[in-house]
Design brief:
Chain A: Keywords: Cytoplasm, tRNA processing. The structure holds two protein chains of two kinds. Chain A is α/β, with parallel strands linked by helices. Chain B is globular, with a radius of gyration of 21 Å. Chain B is built from 14 helices and ten strands. Classes of the chains: A alpha/beta, B alpha/beta. The interface between A and B is large, with 81 and 76 residues. Strand 10 of chain A pairs antiparallel with strand 8 of chain B.
């Protein structure tokens, strides 16, 4: 009933409930020790095989990680990322039958500053995490969230993709790597390699956190009024930090430990936050929006139950680190609410998480193509997703004086804006003008709004007293990042790299706008007309306006 | 200290708008609500001049407000439309018979012609009889499929150009969430459209939702302040519907962030599917000629199941059996047994 492609249930015979004393369904010899999904009983060894095989299959099927590549593992200390770390370790160890072939590094972000932890707790957590990382032998980077205040602007600049690597060249790359390795071995360079490995084991630690940065972080998070906005901002800052560390140290891939359950929750909460356009990259296997660094999610096939069982049976060490959402009520934020909803629904309808997962696989991101001519204005400043609405649903594009680009007139974002303006009395009862225009001056030419007085500032009733000169951050953001920033009490508490990049883009857009000959967005050049003859019946005063 | 209306700033505010949180006086609220509906209609070009439009009226708050607002806007902005009310009687005692009384009152108050079509005359089954056969778990499927066809049949009988329904923002958002939870990507692609494609082929009248961006709470406030008469009880069979879960979730979301409903609709509008995802192709039913993506339309399959005493025939996959049903061949005892199981 709850699924579209539901089969008939079998005839009502007495079905035996799967109990743990049954035999393993795979090898049919040993006793089962656990049950995953609805009725699959596994013994310990078969489960281990199943788990490890899924990880390899996920990497092998998607072929995005090339041999010899440097890959950054984002470990938060939680069960899923610790499990991922173990899988990578096992995969790289010499005695594995088909060795994984890439060079891993670890990154851990210390978010204690945002979650109001005191210095001792942070120290304790850090030392525990370091102990875990040292045992793995991979180079690790411990970055604290406060370092966000010393990031350069380049983090936000869109970078075009690296050279295309189609599937056929994957095989060639693997063969080449194997040949190289053989040659190295023969020439006795193995010893040098080991020495190099040892040197790489040195930890790369962040410098001590400066008190100004600490204060700035506290100010930032206290200026965000709702927990939803805080969690969203934390997620954005985390992504930027990881991206920057990867770029700085030459990593071209980042592995995140998001499990199936976590991704299903993220899909639903992103829908509720308004991030419909970027669902595919936020929850898919690979996230190519940053261009040179690709984010992959190899754990996306595992439910959190499987991960928990594996960690327990095979002794994977994970830490519980309290975050922004710890000890808050179920309904404190949209993300918390979605999590409790999905978990509760999963108890009644066991296929919920896997159905949502399959839905996310069928989605695709309507991002503007990453051509070299792509204008920066097309992408959101914070999350690097498409800013313009999907065109074509109503063939009636509106130049939005506030968002500064074209929006579909028959869309939810436009309707919300109309509601705002009506509630503020900006479209009064006497202004029964041609409904195609959302500008009270009655003219439909988008540029006349601008020329008349710097962004309708002089229009008076157009906007809520927006000063012409400083950058309007909100017009550079996508729908949902705008909602987050609207929840901020003071925009200047944002880290300097965001505000200076916003200034830069705003200024370049203003320069383009001042020169009307040059189209400043691709959408504008295609849809330059505003429908003057929009409607087939006439409101009474249509002839007066023009 | 009394709060002033944020729109006109001259009269006292009497309500707080659920959508934006602004405090408004009665007159400004009415103006805002009606103007938003007008913008939805004009920007999506829902109607053309001189068309006959049937309003799907159930007697509930959404259709009552829709009928009222359309009538007002038709006069104020001179749409030139010919409006009438179309109602469907499913045969649910204690629910539908009362709501039909409300529709009849609407007809008198707004002076619009009314037509009632019933399941009994169209299919030969009332919902009460269906529930006796099917049980309480899957009955909403029957009601929904039959009602859609009943609306279309009624519209063809009355010779109208368009049907409009009172679906509000909450309904559309719930549908988006429900389709994600059920994995129905085909519907996910279409459910946020403000009007269905159509016109031309027999039996298909295009349908639209003028109240698509109006919150349910605002509709209630509008009806309350305008003192409109409507029927407000839940369908007796609704507590077991899957939609209830999506509805509770949406209400909780709205409590956390009031703009969440509009955000969900925005996400739904901007979803796009990968190419190569299998989508159903529109054709016609070989038995009744109604539109269908399979050989037999869903209501024919459901009716067949009811008439043959196989209540689960329409629930779940049955494509392989379509051919046999069309040829009126008997089914094997095993298959019959499968489809007789009831769930109460």
């Amino acid at each position: 009933m709850c699924q579209v492609e539901e089969e008939y249930s079998g005839p009502l015979e007495k079905t035996s409930l799967p109990t743990v004393s049954k035999k393993c369904m795979k090898c049919k010899e040993s006793t089962a020790v656990l049950i995953i999904r609805v009725g699959d009983a596994f013994c310990r060894d078969c489960f281990r095989e199943y788990f490890v095989h899924k990880f390899r299959a996920m990497l092998g099927k998607n072929r995005v990680i090339f041999p010899g590549e440097k890959v950054l593992l984002a470990v938060s200390g939680g069960p899923a990322s610790s499990s991922m770390l173990t899988q990578v370790q096992e995969g790289l160890s010499r005695d594995a039958p088909k060795k994984l072939r890439f060079a891993p590094g670890i990154i851990y972000i210390d978010e204690g500053g945002a979650c109001d932890q005191n210095a001792e707790e942070r120290e304790k957590t850090l030392s525990q995490m370091e102990a875990i990382f040292r045992k793995t032998g991979f180079p690790y980077h411990i970055v604290s969230l406060e370092q966000v205040f010393s990031l350069p602007n380049s983090v936000l600049e869109p970078v075009s993709c690296g050279p295309e690597r189609p599937g056929s060249s994957y095989k060639a790359a693997v063969d080449q790597y194997l040949q190289q390795k053989e040659v190295n071995q023969r020439q006795g360079q193995l010893a040098t390699e080991e020495a190099q490995d040892a040197v790489a084991h040195l930890s790369v630690q962040a410098s001590q956190v400066s008190p100004e940065h600490k204060q700035a972080l506290e100010k930032l998070f206290s200026s965000l009024k709702t927990l939803t906005a805080r969690q969203d901002m934390l997620q954005t800052l985390r992504q930027h930090l990881i991206l920057h560390t990867a770029r700085l140290n030459g990593y071209s891939k980042v592995m995140m430990g998001d499990s199936c359950t976590r991704l299903a929750i993220r899909l639903l909460s992103n829908i509720s936050l308004g991030r419909g356009a970027s669902l595919a990259v936020d929850t898919g296997f690979s996230d190519p929006r940053y261009g040179d660094v690709v984010i992959v999610r190899p754990m996306r096939d595992y439910s959190s139950k499987e991960i928990a069982f594996y960690n327990r049976l095979f002794g994977v060490r994970s830490l519980f680190i309290s975050g922004l959402g710890t000890k808050t009520s179920n309904k404190a934020s949209i993300q918390q609410l979605t999590e409790s909803f999905v978990i509760k629904l999963q108890a009644d309808f066991p296929s919920t998480v896997s159905t949502i997962y399959r839905t996310s696989e069928k989605l695709h991101t309507a991002c503007p193509p990453q051509t070299s001519g792509a204008v920066a204005a097309d992408k959101c400043l914070l999350c690097l997703c498409a800013v313009c609405n999907k065109a074509g649903k109503s063939q009636h594009q509106h130049y939005h004086f506030y968002y500064k680009h074209f929006v579909d007139a028959a869309s939810a974002s436009h309707a919300s804006l109309i509601s705002e303006r009506l509630s503020r009395g900006e479209l009064g009862m006497e202004a029964k003008i041609d409904p195609a225009s959302c500008c009270p001056s009655g003219t439909l030419d988008p540029f006349s709004c601008q020329r008349e007085g710097q962004g309708c500032g002089e229009g008076g009733s157009c906007t809520a007293a927006r000063a012409p000169a400083p950058a309007d951050l909100k017009s550079l953001l996508c729908y949902s990042c705008r909602l987050t920033v609207e929840d901020m009490a003071a925009e200047d508490t944002l880290p300097p790299y965001i505000t200076s990049e916003a200034e830069k883009r705003w200024n370049s857009m203003s320069r383009l706008r001042a020169n009307p000959a040059a189209p400043f967005t691709r959408a504008e050049s295609q849809n330059n007309r505003i429908d003057t003859e929009a409607h087939t019946w006439a409101p009474r005063c249509r002839d007066k306006g023009r | 200290m009394p709060v002033q209306c944020s729109s006109c700033a001259c009269s006292r505010a009497v309500l707080k708008r659920p959508k934006t949180g602004h405090s408004l006086c009665k007159g400004c609220f009415f103006w805002a609500f009606e103007e938003e509906t007008h913008r939805t209609i004009t920007s999506a070009r829902l109607f053309d001049r001189g068309e006959t439009v049937a309003i799907g009226a159930s007697g509930g708050k959404d259709s009552t407000v829709l009928a009222y607002v359309l009538k007002v806007l038709n006069e104020r902005y001179d749409y030139g439309l010919n409006l009438l009310l179309l109602s469907v009687d499913e045969g649910i005692t204690g629910y539908r018979d009362h709501s039909l009384e409300a529709v009849k009152t609407n007809q008198q108050q707004y002076d619009l012609p009314l037509k009632i079509v019933s399941y009994e005359e169209l299919y030969g089954w009332t919902m009460d009889a269906i529930v006796k056969q099917v049980g309480v778990k899957n009955n909403c499927t029957f009601c929904g499929v039959f009602r859609r066809q009943a609306l279309d049949r009624g519209a063809v009988m009355l010779n109208v150009d368009k049907i409009c329904t009172g679906h509000n923002a909450d309904d559309v958002a719930e549908t988006v969430l429900m389709n994600v939870l059920r994995g129905d990507v085909a519907r996910l692609n279409r459910c946020t459209a403000v009007s269905t494609a159509g016109g031309g082929s027999d039996g298909v009248v295009p349908r639209c939702k003028p109240l698509k961006y109006a919150y349910e709470k605002e509709i209630v406030l509008y009806a309350y302040f305008k003192k409109l008469h409507y029927f407000s009880t839940e369908c007796v069979y609704s507590p077991n519907a899957y939609r209830g879960h999506a509805r509770t979730f949406l209400k909780d979301l709205e409590a956390v962030r009031p703009s969440a409903i509009a955000d969900v609709i925005h996400s739904g509008e901007n979803l796009s599917l990968k190419e190569g995802v299998k989508m159903p192709v529109q054709g016609t039913c070989s038995r009744c000629g109604y539109i269908s993506s399979q050989a037999l339309c869903k209501s024919c399959v459901l009716l067949e199941g009811l008439n043959r005493g196989l209540p689960k025939l329409g629930i779940g996959k049955h494509h392989r059996l379509h051919g046999r049903i069309l040829a009126r061949q008997p089914l094997t005892p095993v298959e019959e047994e499968k489809m007789k199981t009831l769930e109460f």
